[in-house]
Design goal:
By secondary structure, the protein is an alpha+beta fold. It is about 65% helix and about 10% strand. It has two domains: about 160 residues, no CATH class; about 140 residues, Heat Shock Protein 90 (2-Layer Sandwich), CATH 3.30.565. The longest helix is centred in the middle third of the chain and has 83 residues. The two termini are about 80 Å apart.
Amino acid sequence: MTLPRPHRVDLIIAFSGLACGLLLWSFGLYTTSGRIFDQRWAPLVPLAVTAAMESVRRVLPQTALTVGTLAIVADQFTNGNLVTVLMFTDLVYAAVVYGSPASARRVPYSTGLVTVAVTIGFLVWWQNAIALLVGVITGMISFLPAVTGSIVRNHREAAEAARLRAEQTALLAEMDRAQAVVAERARMARELHDVVANHLSAIAIHSTAALSLDEPATTRQALTVIRENSVAGLAEMRRLIGLLRDSGGDTGPTAAPTLAALDSLVEQARANARPSGLVLVLDDTRETGAGLPAPVELAAYRIVQESLTNALKHAAPGEVRVALAREERLLAVEVTSPYGERPGPTAPGSGAGLVGMRERTALLDGVFEAGPVTDGEGRRRWRVRAELPVGASDEERQ
């Protein structure tokens, strides 16, 4: 078993105490006289033992106190050395400060009981006031250092607990900041995808058609659609940049789109999809003027926008139906399109659109479904359906 290495400060205390004790001993300065062991060398033994225990006061506090107690008791049978007493008080203090929690609680009580017992014992034996003085001295060299050590240890533990709490608070704050950054990046990614994908998909399809068909009328129509989508996409990008930029001037970011602009969205998509053989139908059965929370309107608008973009890229010729309905406390958004192989140019997809729609619905605690279904006439169709909780209506809130 390897013994722990003494601390450098403890070694300095031990050598300093031994040197001071030898200096007092060389001048013949003792604490008393006429004891059982009154030889000149006798006080040096407790002094050396106590100094040795001072060197391990930090690494072996309990052992140092036990041996030091035996040394201070032995010192009472010699002429005594003041430095031995002082070093013993430091051993009591160190046992409380550096010892185990159980030892730190036990030492003050033990030294207090010893002080009371010594005072009562000498009162019974001597029956005079000197016994009280002995009790006070006993308390000063045992109980008082123990109490001082307990106070210092409590302050250190309180400071350590405060430091740990501060570190935990900083860690939680950093975790919250990181989560907020991730959530904001995800929101930005959804917005950027929904804003750009619709217009770029139309540009890609019509530019492919213009390159593959050598017809001036078709080319002119395709270029017209490309220009319209380029201008609209640029406007949307400016709006998004306005949202992301720190607004330090008078100009604030443009408001987010709502369902009031759904007619314009469908009309634009209808123009983009006409060359692909797609017919867009809007079926909005909501009550006129029924208010919806802003996050619900934005999510519904983006879901319809992304569904129309996917239909433009992948749907076979046929009817694309956009249906919105208010069902009790839910807003149901459903977009169906023909499912199957489509002729003509197509645009590649990454699958990010479905992920974004699912995330938008999940943020509102809604239900999202996307996949092929069979309608009442036995035709295969691709259906996107989102149920978004909307809470109480305006009338119910009033």
